[in-house]
Amino acid sequence: MNTFDPTAQGVPADAMRRLAELQPGKPGSIFTSDLSVNEFLLVREAGFRPIGLVLGSSIYHVGIQLGRWGKNQELETLSQAMYHARELAMTRMEAEAATLGADGIVGVRLSVEARDFGADIAEFIAIGTAVKADHPAPGGTDWRNNKGQPFTSDLSGQDFWTLIRAGYAPLGMTMGTCVYHIAHQKMSSVFSNLGKNVEIEPFTQALYDARELAMARMQAEAEALGAEGIVGVQLNAHNHRWGGHTTEFFAIGTAVRPLREDHEIERPTMVLSLDG
Fold this sequence. Notes:
By secondary structure, the protein is of the alpha+beta class. Helix content is 31%, strand content 29%. The protein has seven helices and eight strands. The strands form two sheets. The chain has a four-stranded mixed sheet. Helix 3 (37-45) packs parallel to helix 5 (157-165). It is globular, with a radius of gyration of 22 Å. The protein starts with 5 loop residues before the first helix and ends in an 18-residue tail after the last strand.
């Protein structure tokens, strides 16, 4: 499947017509963006021009998971479903950006919303502002990542400006997910712990293991992009509709690469107002 073919990726015809009307770079054309005024001005100051609001969506049915509910374990079917649905939304958003000829997407928001179509159905939405650089990256290199895709970043406009001015560039948002079942305590353990200060080690190990799996998967994506590191990492837990003993841990951040060897930015200067 062609990564940049919006139709093959499932982008609807109405979206294609909307993108065609934007015509970035042509006299009289407009752009759309969900950046705040400050973010917009800082992204322009960093040398990037917003060219259009892009989005991707996937309404996903999560399958049935079989397992031994008396033990701690990853629910791999659910992990794969939660990752695949987000990946579909992100890929469609990237396909819209590629249609506009964008170098990247900034201010990306990736969310999950429950829908009333069924208990196991949710919508995954990715939305951000496609941008085009005024100039090539230092050394005449491309701003796109090593897969030829527009870079993605969930950094704010202010953080994006700081990153570029400090000599770094985003490569892409990397993510890892793990849905984990935490086994119920045995009745003997419940009674033996009554009235005591005591660590519940099976619970600790389950949550610890799940977070580590999510983080390791996010790091593996960054390594595949040839990143130097990941900034702005968020590690969140979601129960969705699975009850108290099943939790999703989701790690996400922006993989970055250096643009130059020194990473110094101008020191802030004090401004003394003479008004009043």
